[in-house]
Known about the structure:
Blueprint (H helix, E strand, L loop, with lengths): L1 H28 L13 H10 L6 H12 L15 H36 L4 H15 L2 H15 L12 H30 L2 H8 L4 H29 L3 H6 L5 H11 L2 H29 L7
Helix pairs in contact: 1-3, 1-12, 4-5, 4-7, 4-9, 4-12, 5-7, 6-7, 7-9, 8-9, 9-12, 11-12
Amino acid sequence: MFKFVVKRIISIIVTLLIVCSLTFFMMKIIPGGPFTGERNLPEQVLEALNEKYHLNDPILKQYVDYMVGVFTFDMGPSFKKVGINVEDIIAEAFPVSARLGGVALLIILIVGVPLGILSALKQGKYQDYIITVLATLGIAVPTFVMGSLMLYIFGAKLGWIPTYGFDTWKHYIGPCVSLSTFSMAFVMRLTRSSMLEVMGQDYIRTAKAKGLPRRKVIFKHALKNALIPVVTYVGPMTAGLMSGSFVTEKIFAIPGMGKFYVEAINNRDYTVIMGTTFFYAAIAATMILAVDIVYAILDPRIKYQ
């Protein structure tokens, strides 16, 4: 296992190098620059800004400087937020997105997995039909529609939840519910189908034939294997939740990673775009490694050489 983890860490570093390189050159290929959108900007001022931020340097030198900065945790200054570095923006925004994503993840797991198990165990009964309908609706309704409905009905009309901000526990209700709805519905369906497949395996029938209690058959023998596909989905999903939701944070005016990322794209703020992309890629790669480790915990038959 140790050698496997070391090899995966090396592959993560290589992956991050590729992501950083692609992001850098894509930013350079796009016509214009971070200051070309400024109105009535004199040519001398534009030249001075490009010189200050080393945008006039040869492309290879810019690339080497950027890659050195990334792996020394110095991603450079923001072009639009004067006096603020990219790592400062991430340090400010990531805890907000992580809190939002963490609560949404708890909702997804606490509600989605048990309902998926219940639906599988009650196959063909009214509980199964109700849960299936709810899961289908959750997948069919887009996140921005759910967020808008929460904001309009429960916020503006009923006044049960705040319509903006992220200060008290009530502020979590709207964005966390809208952010978790799709993934929760998907986890329900995935858990149900996986549980039904596992319950039909020979070793489950053998365990039942030996007279083991139904609860022990389900939770000790069936559930671990049934959760493997769920873990596969939850790993990358967690990276997405933790690193910021563009739509949800925009709707509820939450100052998280998604909000700053959208602003950086609109403002052509290259360093912020490249820094947040690198940060997201690092989280995603780490979560995929965590999924592989959890595989071995859930199923002892899985051995990494």
